[in-house]
Amino acid sequence: MVRRLLFFCLAFSIFSLEATAQDVSSTYLQELLALAQEKKLHHNRYWRLLLHYRQDFLGGYSSEVDDPGFFLSETGKTDPEAELHATLTQFFSDELVGRSQQVAQCAFIARFHWLSDQLKFDRTRFPSQTCERFENWLKELNPASITLIFPAAFMNNPVSMFGHSFLRIDQRGQTEHTRILAYTINYAAEVPPDVGVEFAFKGIFGGYQGFFSTIPYYIKVQEYRDIENRDIWEYRLNLSPEEIHRLLMHTWEMGNAYFDYYFFKENCAYHILSLLEVADPQFHLTDQFHLWTIPADTIRLLFQREGFVQDISYRPAGSTNLKRKREAVPASEAFFLNQLTTDPSIARQTDFLQLPLAHQTFLLDLASDYLRYKSRTDKKLADDYNTKNQSVLVSRSQIQVPSPPFPVAPFSLSPEQGHETARMGVGIGWRNDELFEHIDIRAVYHDLLDPDPGYTPDSQIQLGALSLRHYHRRNQFRIEQLTLVNVLSLSPIDSWFIGPSWKIKFGMNTVKSDSCDLCSNGHLNVGAGGAVETHVIQREVFFLMGEAEANVSGAYDENHRVGGGISGGVVANVTDNWKWLASGGYLGYFLGHRSDDIQVSVGQRWTFAKNFVFRTTFTHHDRDNELLAVFHGYF
Amino acid sequence: MVNRTLFMLTAGLFMFGITGVAVAAHPDNGPGCGLGKLAWGSYAGQQSIGSQVLQATTNGTFGNQTFGISSGTLGCTNDGTIFASEKVNVFAAINFDNISQEMAQGQGEHLTSLAALMGIPADQHQIFFAMAQDKYTTLIQAGETSPKAVVKAIYGAIDNHPVLAQASISK
């Protein structure tokens, strides 16, 4: 009897031991859930940041993350509370979750750390799990500081027209010369290589998935500096080790997720800001942007926090490097430079060898830079350029001194020094002897007469601009002009750089005709040609383009006309604050309403302050004559 | 407000349509390691990099099964970092032109970074640069077959160098 009792007790105690282990964790989970509920953690800003929740217009919450694998609750995308409960519950499980297939404590390591802080986790009451993959990753990144990288705008690729931004994870022990080895955190849409015309639509309306990646910086440098010839600005950020750790934990977590990519708002710059908010939740960044996120605007925003951007360094584009070095070549040696790039054997001839050694090495280095540039841009002759470059380099290696550093000055100031991108103006003018008041507003971004500093020289992108007028005599208000797109890129041509200048304009303006005085006119204009640069006053760029235009308006017979013609002009910096733009053109219309049109326009802009300018324009267009004076503010 | 959004969208759409020729693929989707989810994309102008990396890595020493076929990547771990054993080769393959130019010039950040990856102590970098410049022609000739052969030739030259051979180089 005693023995049987003993056996029974033993069996019971084993059973109860097992039960206790489960009970302990499940009771602990219940405690944590209750505490989280009591503390209303799902309302906490940090939880919203970690899950990328945004309040919608009905007051509910929805996450910008579109990957179901990012949520541990089925309703997690729209229910912060359910997601928090599911997350706590999953921390007690060995199940592998998310895209990265890890246990939840590791896959969502930033959530784990934050909840642990908030709820004072007793780790002994959790299943013991180590995050070896994360630790190895972190060790490999070897983070010491974070630098924001901004490759400047690149006009010849629509996705890069506003620039790009990403983070570099600077490594411990990294020097100025080894920082290319650091990893980066880059957010980009994944687009299939054989994409067609659907690209634009999908890119704008969320048709592609965007992912974070950790590409080594040397690949990014090659891409932007060498291949696309874009200046790169590097801004070291003032983040504490704890903030960097939070940022990296969250980056790791984001390896589990994709977002639908929206070119204008939820783009690279936007998601980089979201990482900085996780680093320091005091920072309110992403909620400053509503309809679009222009990368340069995000940099200006970071500068608003005193001391946050610690220092700026500049990495010149391949083409900037070439231009600056060419300026430094004395006229007497230009001949040798030209020879080296066409017949490198001159490097072994007496004339060349009589130059001072430092001049020889400088010319050889520049010739090599040029030949490499040509081999990248002129694919047909790439082999020839490579062979010549090889020959130049062999000659160079025989002069056994290291090349001294050559500081390259940028052609444009760093982007944070630029004007804001939205613009508003008030003014007054006369049109065909009638007085009018004028206001205008522009969503983005920069035109040829806006202040130059911080923007890619000789380029213009205007999207979403509207001007309204009140004509005095007839007491009439009207929408004078509406610009959907007005993009122009001038590329001055010389013996080294040959590229097209082009423009495209699409919108509505107001014209005068026989049948009506102020008629709305829809127009589409495209043009292409060339430009040259002179330095007579300060800097002038002359351009000439062939163009095609289509108009739709009640002013014309059959309500339309289509034609082509030629236009040209000059944009001139007279002083740092004063710039002129004069242009003229002829268009002959041969379809629809047969007619022709001569246009002349002369404008000037005076800069009072970075974000405040005065502009006057005289325009002659068909039978319209107009003079307009406007004050513009940027915001 | 809604109208403005509409303008922006239409505007952007239009802009894309016209210059769509230049857009073979997203330029930021270049070769590289992803985070968890990985992609070695290729796009116009970047194919050379992709193929260089392939060249550098397919001949090679990748025995590790945790990457590659399933993730579609080479040289990277599943978590987006580069295998320690392949760091020098991947770096040399991708930056071959820059390294070769800087070897002839006896200095430069790519050459310095290569030296750092090879484990050459910072106080011997100048010696390494001078050696690379001195032996430029033979080293580059060795590299005509692949960037990996240049790396091998450089290691060989280090072994035969009276000073550099003393340093413990990571291979």
Key structural traits:
heterodimer; A: 635 residues; alpha+beta; 16 helices; B: 171 residues; mainly alpha; disordered N terminus
Molecular structure report:
Chain A has 16 helices and 23 strands. Chain A is of the alpha+beta class and 635 residues long. In chain A, strands 12-13-14-15-16-17-18-19-20-21-22-23 form a 12-stranded antiparallel β-barrel. A 7-stranded antiparallel sheet of chain A has the order 10-8-7-6-5-9-11. Chain A is globular and about 90 Å long. The model of chain A is unreliable at 5-19 (pLDDT under 50). Chain B is an all-alpha fold. Chain B has a domain at 95-171. Chain B contains 8 helices and no strands. Chain B has helices at 2-18, 47-58, 87-94, 96-105, 109-117, 125-134, 136-142, 147-159. In chain B, α4 packs across α6 (125-134). Chain B starts with a helix and ends in a 12-residue tail after the last helix.
Looking at CATH, the homologous superfamily of the largest domain in chain A is monomeric porin ompg
Strand/helix succession of chain B: HHHHHHHH
The main sheet of chain B comes to: none
Distance between the termini of chain B: 60 Å
Rg over alpha carbons of chain A: 31 Å
Class of the largest domain in chain A, according to the CATH hierarchy?
A: Mainly Beta
Q: Note the total helix count of chain A.
A: 16
Short précis:
The complex is a heterodimer of chains A (635) and B (171). With 635 residues, chain A is of the alpha+beta class.
Compile the SSE list and pairings.
The complex is a heterodimer of chains A (635) and B (171).
Chain A: H1 2-39, H2 45-51, E1 53-55, E2 61-63, H3 80-90, E3 96-97, E4 102-103, H4 104-107, H5 109-119, H6 132-141, E5 143-151, E6 166-171, E7 183-190, H7 198-204, E8 208-213, H8 217-227, E9 232-237, H9 241-254, E10 259-261, H10 268-279, H11 295-303, E11 309-315, H12 318-327, H13 334-342, H14 350-353, H15 357-377, H16 382-398, E12 423-431, E13 434-446, E14 459-471, E15 476-489, E16 501-511, E17 519-534, E18 539-552, E19 560-573, E20 578-592, E21 595-609, E22 612-621, E23 624-634
Antiparallel strand pairs in A: 1-2, 3-4, 5-6, 5-9, 6-7, 7-8, 8-10, 9-11, 12-13, 12-23, 13-14, 14-15, 15-16, 16-17, 17-18, 18-19, 19-20, 20-21, 21-22, 22-23
Helix pairs in contact in A: 1-3, 9-10, 12-15, 13-15, 15-16
Chain B: H1 2-18, H2 47-58, H3 87-94, H4 96-105, H5 109-117, H6 125-134, H7 136-142, H8 147-159
Helix pairs in contact in B: 2-3, 3-8, 4-5, 4-6, 7-8
